[in-house]
Each structure stands twice: as C-alpha cells, then as structure tokens.
Design goal:
InterPro entries: 2Fe-2S_ferredoxin-like_sf (IPR036010), 2Fe-2S_ferredoxin-type (IPR001041), Adrenodoxin-like (IPR001055), Beta-grasp_dom_sf (IPR012675). This is 2Fe-2S ferredoxin-type domain-containing protein. Its cofactor is [2Fe-2S] cluster. By secondary structure, the protein is an alpha+beta fold. Among the domains are: 99 residues, PDZ domain (Pdz3 Domain), CATH 2.30.42.10; 110 residues, Ubiquitin-like (UB roll). It contains nine helices and 13 strands. The strands form four sheets. The protein has a five-stranded mixed sheet, with helices on one face. It has a four-stranded antiparallel sheet with strand order 1-6-4-5. Strands 2-3 form a two-stranded antiparallel sheet.
C-alpha cells in the first residue's frame, strides 16, 4: 500500500503524480473504450442471435444454470460451463498474439480454484452475466476481454463462464470444422498488395474468418512475406526470426495490438509495419508485402 509523506502538501502532490504516472500504462491497457475494442475483436452478439448459439441446462454441485442462449456445450465434450463470481480469482494469459485468452493461474483461495472445475490452461470461450446476454470471447483480444469485465454492471455478482479444456490449436480446429461454436457466417476481407510500385504489382483479395493469422492466410494462398534469403531461412511462423514484415496500410485498428517485443523489433520502421506471424485480423485490412525496411531488419 502506498503511504504519502506528511511533511508538506508539495510532497504529497509529487507522490500522487509519481503513482499516477506509474499506473497510467495499466489504465490505458485495460480501460480502452468498448466501442474501440469492438473494432479490434469479435463483436458482441445480441439477445436475438440464432445459429449455433443454443443453450443446454447443466446441473452439478452448484445451482443449475438456466441461460436462454449461449454456446451449445454438446458440440464438443471439452466444453463446459461454470458459474463463478465476477472476480473469480483467475490470472488470465495469452500468447504473443494477445488473443485467445486462457487460464494462466488461479488464486488458491479464489472462486475458480474453490469450484474444483476450472483448470490451468482452459480456454475462455464465453461469459454471461447472470440474467444477461452471452458475450462470445473465442479468439478475442486480451484487452477486449479485460474491458468486458470492467464494463459489467455494478449489480452483477455472478457470471456464467464457458471454458474449453484444450489448447488454442484444439479450439481453433473445432471452430474450423463445421462445428463452429460461434457461427461461420461472418467473414472479413484481406486485400494484399504485392510488389507495390513495380511492373509486377498485383492485388489479391482474400476472405477469412475474424481472428485469422495474417502470415498463415498469406502463405496458405502462396503469397510470400519474406524478402531476400529469408524466404528459405525464416522460422516458419514460430515467432523467432522477425523477418515476415508486412505493412498494414488500411484497417490497422482491426488487428491485435503490438507486443513490446514486436514493437522493439520494428522500432526503426513506421507504426503500420507488423510481423505477420503475430498479427491477427478481426476486420477488413489491406496488407502490403515487401515494404521498404531499414537495415536493422535486413540481416535478421
């Protein structure tokens, strides 16, 4: 706990300023306006949603859950629902994509650990304020998930969580198969400009589901993202080499935020430059391959 010196009013003001400057990054990370976060992640689904959002009442040691809508838990046996307090004692985590939020750790005295149902590594799929509307969170950016908790009404005391017991890859696999638990009607457009400014300039338009990895989408469609010899010496999307550089010329707000490592790797280049292996698109974007890069990146 911070304690303020009692010597003078000036000392107190200085101490408050230091605390405010220290906490500013935390506030700016988790308190981004919800309308801005929705542009960068999965949209909220209204109470009139149809499709594969079907409910299934469950019973157990806790009170039976009776939500009118939500993920159909019968789609996969690894899906489960549990009712916890709005502050469940979970330490949430993601990989370098800052999406697909999962249970990184739990407070031993928290509601999640005490329930005996939640395990480390479980993927967060959905949350529903008791008596409210389900909020789909599969593949959502970390800051959208955190802001969802912040935006809950003060009257909300308990929340129905839907988790998936498996890896991110497992969850993406069942969404890619005809069992999409969030529906498959929504598509985004990724416009790719190749060899811009040369006689070989070409524009390719691709469609994909929100949350698609930019490198995977381009490589799967035979579009090269590597310059010079890095086409053969790259890390194949394992987030190690820093050579799959693209320029997001339009729609950058529709992608996940840069990690500190990515920002450091690209620090000599424009803010719109991204490492495609850690960039995920949630809205329409335009991507330029082979953008001009600084010397520091050429030999990476």
């Amino acid at each position: 706990m911070y304690s303020l010196p009692s010597s003078s009013t000036t000392d107190r003001r200085v101490a408050l300023l230091v605390v405010a400057l220290f906490l500013h990054p935390v506030w700016s990370f988790s308190m981004m306006p919800l309308h801005a976060l929705q542009q960068r992640g999965l949209p909220f689904r209204s109470s009139a949603s149809k499709g594969l959002y079907l409910s299934r009442e469950e019973s157990g040691s806790r009170e039976a859950i009776d939500a009118s809508e939500g993920i159909d838990l019968s789609l996969d046996p690894r899906l489960y629902k549990v009712r916890l307090s709005r502050a469940p004692g979970i330490d949430w985590g993601t990989d370098l994509s800052f999406s697909f939020v999962y249970v990184r750790d739990m407070d031993p005295a928290g509601d999640a650990a005490f329930s005996g149902e939640v395990q480390k590594g479980d993927q967060l799929c959905e949350l529903t304020p008791v008596g409210g509307v389900p909020i789909p969170l599969i593949g959502a950016p970390f800051d959208l998930v955190m802001n969802t908790f912040v935006e809950l009404d003060k009257s909300v005391r308990e929340v129905d969580f839907v988790f998936f017991r498996g890896t991110k890859q497992d969850l993406k696999a069942i969404c890619a198969n005809g069992n999409s638990i969030q529906g498959d009607s929504e598509q985004i457009t990724v416009t790719v400009i190749q060899n811009k400014g040369s006689q070989e300039e070409a524009v390719v338009t691709l469609t994909a589901k929100p949350g698609v990895n930019v490198r995977e989408l381009l490589v799967d469609n035979d579009i090269n993202v590597y310059q010079s010899v890095t086409r053969w010496t790259n890390c194949k999307g394992k987030q190690l080499c820093g050579t799959c550089i693209v320029n997001i010329t339009k729609g950058s707000l529709g992608t996940n935020r840069k990690s500190m490592d990515e920002a450091s790797t690209l620090r000599e280049n424009p803010d719109s430059y991204r490492l495609s292996c850690v960039t995920f698109a949630y809205d329409d974007i335009t991507v330029e391959t082979f953008p001009p890069i600084k010397a520091a990146q050429w030999t990476r």
